[in-house]
Structure formats: structure tokens, C-alpha cells
Amino acid sequence: MLTPILAAGAPAGAPNFGFYEALQQGGAIAISTLVILVIMSVGSFYILFTKLFEQQKIMNQAKRVRASFWQSNSLREGAAKLDKNSAYRQIVDDGLAAQEQHGKLTDPVEAHDWLHGSLARSESAINSKLNSGLPFLATVGATSPFVGLFGTVVGIYRALVKIGAAGQAAIGDVAGPVGEALIMTAIGLVVAVPAVLAYNWLQSRNKSIQKDLSSFSNDVLGYLASNGAVRPTIAARGPAPVAKPAVGSTTAGQAGGVPTAPRA
After folding, report:
1. CA–CA distance from 180 to each of 15, 35, 39, 216 (Å)?
2. Does residue 109 register a pLDDT over 70?
3. Angle, to 10 degrees, between the axis of helix 134-166 and the axis of helix 171-225?
4. Which residues, 6 or more positions from 213, have their beta carbon under 8 angstroms from its beta carbon?
5. What's phi and psi for 60, nearest 5 deg?
6. Closest Cα to residue 47, out of 138, 134, 128, 125?
7. Residue 81, number of CB atoms within 10 A of its CB
8. Whose CA is closest to 162, among 150, 151, 173, 178?
């Protein structure tokens, strides 16, 4: 009995409540809301991947700095080992430029204050570039649920208008607008959650990079202020000295393990 009915499929003229049909019923408002949410999502993922690439590049530069930079004879020699567009090389170049400019100043300014200010400006410029794009992620995470909620409100409003116009509207008359409203709410959340997660993750990685840059900037300042006498501990530390036995002493292992007493 049920087989012929199932084979026949849905009756002719039955309404279709798919996603495309819901957008058609929503009209220009629903389509515009969806386009805005799609733009937000695409922009969020673009910023996520570009910032990850940029952060990883600086992290790789930090490894090269720790490996070979402070083993150089001078800052210029160490800077030559770094990439031309390296963030760490920018700090070194700005520090060397500030050292040269200090000798040309006519007002009495302490070298430490001048160098510290120049390195701080260089570090601030790098941090500003690292944080670029993150406000967009924060904006998307905060506003996309409300953009989806706007589509929800419009869909429910249209459903209520149909109910009021028909007096007693059937469920099929209001299912389309209500379905559109629920779809917009879901899309707003789908856009917001990845944006918030990406923002927090990128911020955490930026803090780690900024900590390394600040430590390196402080090391460069110490090097410049001391004319090369002060270097990071990891670079100044050499191999541990090997203790040598005193001349004329006899160890326990030299005479079979037990020292012998002198004869009378």
C-alpha cells in the first residue's frame, strides 16, 4: 500500500523548503544579509592564513638569530646574516642608525635614552604590523551574530505578516519565512565562532613573538651602550672549564685505588 505512494514522490505543487527557496522568499534583504556574512567569513579566513604565514616567518627568523647572530664579531656582521626584510634586522639597523645619529645631535641627550627611544619605535612599528588585520577578526566575531539576527528578525516578521493577512495561516505558509530566519541565525554563528577562535590564537602567538622581539631589542641596546662589551648570556657562555689535578698530588686510582703510607 505504501510502496506506490512512496514511488510517486511528493504531490505536484507541494512547496519546497530548501535553502535556495528560503532565500527567494526572503528577497533582497535575505540575499544581502547572506552576502555580508559570506564576505565576513572569507575575510576572516584570509586574515587567518596570511597572519599565520607572517608569524611563522618571524619565528623562523628568531631561530636563526639564536643560532648564529650573537656569534658574530659585530652587529653589522650579524645583521648581514639575516634576511633583508627580517624584523630582527630592522631592529639592528635602526639601532645602528640611532647610534650614528646621536653623534650629530646638538642638544645634550644621553645615548641610552636616544637608543632606547629609537629601538622602542622600531619595535612598536613591527608590533603594529603584526596586529594589523586582527581588529577585523574581532569585529566579525562581535557583529556577525547580530547580522544573522537581523535576517532572523526579518524572517519572523514576514511570517507574522502572513499569519495576520490570512487570519488562520497554514503551517506551509509560515514555514518558509521561519526557516529563513533560523538559517540566518545559524550562518551568523558559523561566521562568528571561527573569527573569535582565530583572533584569540593569533593574539597569543603575537604575544610570544613580541616577547622575543623585546628581549632581542634589550640585548641590542646593551651591546650598543657598552660598545660590544655586554652580550646575551647564551652567547657569552663558553664551555665549562675542566678541573686539573694539582701538581704532585696522588689520587686514589694511581696506586691501585688505595694510597700507601710512606716508609719509616
Report:
1. 14, 14, 19, 54
2. yes
3. 170
4. 87, 88, 91, 123, 126, 127
5. -65, -35
6. 134
7. 15
8. 173
| pTM greater than the 0.85 cutoff | no
**CA proximity to 212, closest of 53, 98, 64, 111:** 64
- The C-alpha atoms of residue 32 and residue 37 are separated, in whole angstroms, by 9
Residue 188 is which amino acid? G
pLDDT at 85: 84
List all residues 6 or more positions away from 58 whose beta carbon is below 8 Å from its beta carbon. Answer: 87, 130, 209
261 vs 220, which has greater pLDDT? Answer: 220
Distance, in Å, from the CA atom of 19 to the CA atom of 246, rounded to the nearest integer, reads 89
State mean pLDDT over 173-201.
84
Residues 172-196 have a mean pLDDT of 80
| Alpha carbon 226 to chain centroid, angstroms | 35
Distance of CA 255 to the CA centre of its chain: 65
Other CB atoms within 10 Å distance of the CB of residue 59: 13
- DSSP state for residue 107 in the 8-state scheme: S
What's the length of the chain?
A: 264
The C-alpha cell of 187 is what?
550562518
Q: Using an 8 Å Cβ cutoff, are 177 and 25 in contact?
A: yes
CB 154 within 8 A of CB 29: yes
Contact 224/101 with Cβ under 8 angstroms? no
Q: What's the grid cell of residue 93?
A: 639597523
Single-letter residue type at 177: P
Say how many CA atoms lie within 13 Å of 89 toward its Cβ: 13
**Distance between CA atoms of residues 235 and 179, nearest Å:** 65
The DSSP secondary-structure symbol of 248 reads T
Mean pLDDT of 172-195: 80
